[in-house]
Design brief:
Its EC number is 2.3.1.234. It catalyses: L-threonylcarbamoyladenylate + adenosine(37) in tRNA = N(6)-L-threonylcarbamoyladenosine(37) in tRNA + AMP + H(+). One of its GO terms (biological process) is tRNA threonylcarbamoyladenosine modification. The chain folds into 2 domains: 148 residues, Nucleotidyltransferase, domain 5, CATH 3.30.420.40; 169 residues, Nucleotidyltransferase, domain 5 (2-Layer Sandwich). It starts with a strand and ends with a helix. The chain has 11 helices and 10 strands. Helix 2 runs parallel beside helix 3. The protein is α/β, with parallel strands linked by helices and 331 residues long. It is globular, with a radius of gyration of 20 Å. Strands 3-2-1-4-5 form a 5-stranded mixed β-sheet, with helices on both faces. A 5-stranded mixed β-sheet has the order 8-7-6-9-10, with helices on both faces. The chain is 45% helix and 20% strand.
Length: 331
């Protein structure tokens, strides 16, 4: 079964051809990140305009790399939300036009579910499992008992983890995107230099607004005291911040895996690219006897392979929609 995936939920424009649920034949991503960097965040209008420019070339390249023609495709899977509405409209409109021209089914894919199941690309899925999706816009914990049976147990009450990384990077003058900048700076610092914490009570919800503000106040106090932040101080601030966020994510995810008796934890999303998070997840799950499935780094950031792969699984499970609905997106 050959499925073309299209992903345009944010600033990336992705297209991928997947054969079965595990054989990624091609995976092409074009990003407008450089156009957003001067603003310190994603500008929706810039993102959607860039996607209109990229999408034809990206889909063509994905098909050429797969060495497949339109008549050899069995379905098209496209992200239909959540995401930036202008960006989603680009992908949905293009995918619907292709499905009509090629006369193949069009499957609408939930962006968070695609991240959730990205950990299983190239392998089978064992149910039940606990899922953690951690990205720039979402931080969510799920109990999953089957395809289409994902129960949301915890989510962020304010900033998502990736958003907090971006904002702290901006506070410390590290530029955008913040995730890679924080990770790079943190390697030179001490995670015990400052005491930060993520406080959201005893449940499974997350809150990263408070720790962001704590870093802001600490940086201001240090600047008043010393006149500037030295590279060593910035390194210590980033290491301490990153460690607190990682411990919160790892602790709650592992605790839910034990509470739900699933003994399997799957992790996906852009922040799952972070090496410190991946290392702590591996350490903690090993100690708690929990099986860990991390999305491969190639499929952590927004990409179309995870969209196409989930499309295949939905088709195989008989749970796919006949087409992605623009009316639902427009609300």
């Amino acid at each position: 079964m050959n499925v073309l995936g299209i992903e345009t939920s944010c600033d990336e424009t992705g297209a991928s051809v997947v054969r079965g649920a595990g054989d990624v034949v091609s995976n092409v991503v074009a990003s407008s990140l450089a156009q957003h960097a001067p603003y310190g965040g994603i500008i929706p209008e810039i993102a959607s305009r860039a996607q209109m420019e990229f999408i034809c070339a990206v889909v063509r390249e994905a098909m050429e790399k797969a060495r497949l023609k339109a008549g050899e495709m069995d379905a098209i899977a496209v992200t239909q939300g959540p995401g930036l509405i202008g960006s989603l409209l680009v992908g949905l409109s293009f995918a619907r036009a292709l499905s009509l021209a090629w006369r193949v089914p069009l499957i609408g894919i939930n962006h968070l579910q695609a991240h959730l199941y990205a950990a299983f690309i190239g392998s089978g899925i064992s149910f039940p499992f606990t899922g953690l999706v951690v990205s720039g816009g979402h931080t969510s914990l799920y109990e999953v008992t089957g395809i289409g049976r994902e129960k949301l147990v915890g989510s962020t009450r304010d900033d998502a983890a990736g958003e907090a990384f971006d904002k702290v990077a901006k506070i410390l003058g590290l530029g955008y995107p913040g995730g890679p900048a924080i990770e790079a700076a943190a390697r030179k610092g001490s995670s015990e230099a400052f005491r930060f914490r993520c406080d959201c009570g005893p449940g499974f919800d997350f809150s990263f607004s408070g720790i962001k503000t704590a870093v802001l106040y600490k940086a201001r106090d240090l600047k008043k005291l010393y006149g500037r932040l030295s590279p060593a101080t910035v390194a210590d601030l980033t290491a301490s911040f990153q460690s607190a966020v990682v411990e919160d994510l790892v602790g709650k995810a592992c605790r839910l895996a034990q509470k739900s008796h699933s003994r399997l934890l799957a992790v996906g999303g852009g922040v799952a690219f972070n090496t410190a998070l991946r290392s702590r997840l591996q350490e903690e799950t090993r100690q708690r006897n929990i099986e860990l499935r991390l999305a491969p780094k190639a499929y952590c950031l927004d990409n179309a392979a995870m969209v196409a792969s989930l499309g295949v699984r939905l088709l195989e499970a008989g749970k796919s929609s006949k087409r992605a609905c623009l009316d639902t997106l427009m609300g």
